[in-house]
Amino acid sequence: MASPGKTWWGQRFLAALEGFTDSGRLARGRAYGSDSRILKFAIADAVVTATVRGNINPYYGVYKEPRYTTKIQMTPIPAPDWQKAIAYLGGRAGLVCKLLLNEMPDTIEAAFADVKLPLLPRDRKDFRLTNCSCPDHANPCKHIAGVYYRLAAQLDHDPFLLFELRGLSRAALREALSRTPLGEALAGVVDDHALPLVAADSYYTRPLPAPAPPDYRSFWQGGRRLPTEIEPATPAAVPGILVKKAGDFPPFWDREGSFVAVMEEVYLRVRSKNKDSL
C-alpha cells in the first residue's frame, strides 16, 4: 500500500483522527492498512467494510490465523443540509467548475464551514459506526486503525469519497450541481459529448472527380498574399479537461506529486519549446 496522506485532504483526514484517537494506537494500526493485512475492502451505501488478517498467538491460544470483519460508517449529512450546501456551492463559479471537473477545491472545507456543516471528521460524533469482530474492546482497535489508513489512501486517489461517506454519491453531487444556474452553464462545457457513428462505404478514401480543371497558377501562388503576422492563439477557457477529470491522483498514478501539475508542466514545455521559431 502506498503511503497515505499524500494530498491535503488525506492529511487532514488522518490529522482529524489523531485529534480524537489515541495516537499510539492509531500508529500501531498503520501496518494493518497494507494489502497483506486487509484481504477485502469495499465501500457500499457509505459503509466501509473490510476483512483484516490477524496474528497467530499460541500464548493466547490462537493457533489458527484469525480474520476479523471491520466496519466504519461516518455520520451522514441530512438531505435538507445537503440542499443548503449545494445551494452555497452552486453560487460560486470556482467551486462548481472544479467539482464538475472532478477536482477537489482547496477551499471546500471552508465552504462547508460557512454553512456550518462538517465534511472531514472532527470528533467521535462524526462516526456513526466503528466496529470490529476482534476480542479487543478498545475502539479503535489496531484493525479499525488499519482500515482508517486504507481509507485515507483511497481518499488520496478519490477525494469525492468524502461526499459519499457523508451520504451523497458522486453522481448525485454532479446532478445537483448541474441543476444550479452556474452548473447549467458549465455542465455543457465539461460534459463529454458522444459523437454519432456514421457508416462508411469503404475502409479507404475514394477519389472524387474535380468539378472543373484545377487552376495550377492559383493553387501555387494563391489569390491573396499570406498574412505577415499570425494572431496569437488564446488559451482554452477550460484547459486540460480530459487530464483534469482524472483528478490529482488517478488510480494509475503512484507518485507523490500531483498528476495534473505534472501534465500542466509538460503542456507548458510543449507550447514554449518552439515558440520563437514560429
Description of the molecule:
Helices cover 40% and strands 10% of the residues. It is of the alpha+beta class and 278 residues long. The protein has three domains: 1-77 and 118-159, no CATH class; 78-108 and 169-191, no CATH class; 239-278, no CATH class. The chain has a four-stranded antiparallel sheet with strand order 1-2-3-4, covered by helices on one side. A hairpin with a 2-residue loop joins strand 1 and strand 2. The longest helix is centred in the middle third of the chain and has 16 residues, at 142-157. The protein is elongated, with a radius of gyration of 27 Å. Residues 117-152 form the SWIM-type domain. This is SWIM-type domain-containing protein. Keywords: Metal-binding, Plasmid, Zinc, Zinc-finger.
